[in-house]
Amino acid sequence: MSKFINEKFTSLEEYTPGEQPQDKKYIKLNTNESPYPPSKAVVKAVSKAEIKDLRLYCDPECKKLKLAMAKLFGVNGENIFLSNGSDDILNFAFMAYGQKGAAYPDITYGFYSVFAELHGVESEVIPLRDDFTIDICEYKNKNKLIVIANPNAPTGIALSLEEIEEIVKANPDSVVLIDEAYVDFGGESCYKLTAKYDNLLCVGTFSKSRSLAGGRLGFAIANERLIADLEKIKYSTNPYNINRLTQVVGTATINDNDYYLKNCEKIIKTREWVTKELESLRFFVLPSKANFIFAKSDKISGLKLYEELKEKGVLVRHFEKDRIKDFNRITIGTDKEMKTLIEKIKEIL
Ligand code: PMP
């Protein structure tokens, strides 16, 4: 850090992304990417002509992509916001709606506390129950920004649509942000409720179920007034924040939705058998509706299992954090990758 940095950032604890090793080849089960490639239509969409057009700025309104999404989700273009990954949208939301503080669970996506600190938003951190579920009664009449990942990460546990609606209904004067990064793997999206509630901000990403983590594309669906707030911030920071190629592949992705739905089904099937395998090895596995599972063994510590798996070429995610340090978060890969994972775990145990 230099002596020139604004004092307010000196104590900021930045987010630590999962490892992205560029040297050794690992079975990579640590950052919840899809094990399946983008669809053939997506690969075809990146034509020479599109690459030549990179000399031109991209469409800041992302009209084509928005149109495709509006059709798929059955909403209007003015109800959709697009940005550079959903992290970007979370950042904007803390900036826009955090003036009275923000409430979120103690065990959840690590970026929420970073954005809160970055924007001087006071955090109310609400503990999950002992079984790692969210007690929705704790999220009523808060009068501040509420942020809930549904399904939650890293637990994978989901709230029902009725529970989400109860929270939204009980906070008419606050924005309720539901982060649905993992919703396509068995959860229930709340985006349709945005027609009914003007305080609900439903945030999604192309990084997980749509195999585009490296493309950086996130979206929000909400009442047009919330979308206008986010646009205001985007146009005050970086209006061209979704590059031309990402707009093109994003549109092709939406137009090939069935391919992605099938991949989600495959991932869910794999998750179910991996869970059973781990349970037969006496692991405790939380009930996941995401493309990862959160599991612990009483035979080996979370850290040791992470380290030994890494040694054997399998990367999983470990959080050395209170309440969850016995666990590892394991992304669901292909059946072949997961068979190797189970073999390696058996060797280690
Ligand atoms: N929300 C949650 C709960 C996540 O786990 C992630 C991925 N790290 C994100 C949002 C951000 O995803 P992206 O920026 O790739 O859209």
Can you characterise this structure?
The chain has 349 residues and is of the alpha/beta class. The protein has two domains: 7-37 and 258-348, Aspartate Aminotransferase, domain 1, CATH 3.90.1150.10; 58-257, Aspartate Aminotransferase, domain 2 (3-Layer(aba) Sandwich), CATH 3.40.640.10. The chain is 35% helix and 14% strand. The protein contains eleven helices and twelve strands. It has helices at 40-45, 48-52, 63-73, 86-97, 111-118, 161-169, 224-235, 244-254, 257-280, 302-311, 335-348, and strands spanning 27-28, 80-83, 102-105, 123-126, 145-149, 176-179, 200-205, 218-222, 283-285, 292-297, 314-315, 327-331. The strands form three sheets. The protein has a seven-stranded mixed beta sheet, sandwiched between helices. A three-stranded antiparallel beta sheet has the order 9-10-12, covered by helices on one side. A two-stranded parallel sheet has the order 1-11. The longest helix has 24 residues, at 257-280. The termini are far apart. The chain binds 4'-deoxy-4'-aminopyridoxal-5'-phosphate (PMP). 4'-deoxy-4'-aminopyridoxal-5'-phosphate binds at residues 85-87, 109, 149, 153, 179, 181, 205, 207, 213, 218.
